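As a representative case, the lines below give one protein's residues and fold tokens.
***
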Amino acid sequence: MKHSSLVFLFSCFIFVSSRLVAQEFPEALAPAMILKPVPVEYGNDKRQFQGIPSMALSPGGRLWADWYAGGSGEGDDNYVLVATSGDAGGSWSKPLLAIDIPGPVRAYDPALWTDPNGKLWVFWAQSEHWWDGRSGVWCITTDTPESEDAVWSVPRRLCDGIMMCKPIVDSNGRWLLPVSLWSLDPVHPERKLAIGAHVVASEDQGKTWNDLGHIAVPKKDAIFDEHMVVERKDGSLWMLIRTKYGIGESTSTDGGKTWSESQPSTLPHTSSRFFIRRMQSGNLLLVKHGGLTERTGRSHLTAYLSKDDGKTWIGGLMLDERNGVSYPDGDQAKDGTIYIIYDYDRMGAKEILTARFSEEDLEAGKIVSKNGALRLLVNKATAQHSEAKPLQFDANPNADGKLIRFGDSPELKLRDGDEQGLFKAGEKLFTNRDYTLLQYPKELEGRKFLRSKLEATETICRKPGMVYVFTPLKARNKDSVVEELLKNDFEKVSSPEVLLFGNIIGNITTLYQKEVKADETIKFGKWGVLVW
């Protein structure tokens, strides 16, 4: 504990010292505080939100997990927690370490990795507010990962961007980090990386890092990248990338310097993180949502095996079929046991879970091994979720809109899988997300709304009437469907913006309206909410 206190005080000293030269050392560039032991303010009973986990094994088999939490969603209050297990995931410590930055800076999207020398790395991103146009990849390391009371280094910044998926070591011994620079506003004037999915390499075992090359997914398809890289047996690098349509792919045959244009992979998937990794056997492990020929929401988390370098996949071990499971990551023990970590219901159950299985289980499509187990609990936060303090909105950008109009309610034909809901606080907004309605104009309370997938809304009007759509302005969220609405003669309403759900700027929405005709189709992509 004495050493832990020194680490904490030293981290605080670095942080406070950086504030004395604030103009040269902006808040997002200041080292985080490494809090050990973890203060009671970060306890399970204080956390309203948590998810986005990662996992790694020490050379001796100790499991380490991390994830981020803090606040009631993604935002300034986010911090990273680290816990460990010494019995193959049967039981877990309480969080032993918290990584946090005071002020309007969040620590998020963490990753764990054990390098070839046995050193354990904790990576995370730092950004002023939800997104500052640059972010940054930070890390701490330990040479004592076999001990629950591991000794950690001071924080170090490696590069701009976000790295939330595991590094790999290629056949030339280079350490390769999959780093993303999001295609979102604002654009930070001092950032050094271009927009896109990068590979950042070290040829001196992590002492220095240099950008090798990158691929920029077309803007219409780009989202958060969350890309992963594997080296194929022919020496090429294969990159799989999260996109709006699911999983994109790109290949490099010159060691990562140049990449082919991204294109849709043959793997259907929702727009969410997946996991791919080379196993000790030489086979590839893939963890995705749904079957090999179907696209589901964030449910049916399933593991597959490939014996031909990703050309075909076999097996299909269902890890967790529930709605609200997401963001798999994992590692493999020396005895071949595979561990996958993921989150469940980030604002409700607030659980971090693991699955433990073998390649034999993968091929069988069920647990047949002696030590296989599913839904092992790593951590559960218990604080009741409540929305954070309201975001500060700008002056009303809808002042040039029209007054809200009322009329007869239309009759809409719903697609299979879509649902009709009542527009009121707490209602689930999308069939494949757990986001719930927070703010809305009182004039629309209690009306019907279409609960469909976040990525696509479509319906046919059987009877004419007034319809309304909530979507963010383009300046707030690149996934705005404003252009689609305006092309189809929707008009902006002069009502002030509302925070439809969550607590990030990208969810502040504007209302659009239209009087639709019989047999007219209403159709738009990601994302809007249709009310009538």
Remarks:
- Residues 59 and 430 are 42 Å apart (CA to CA).
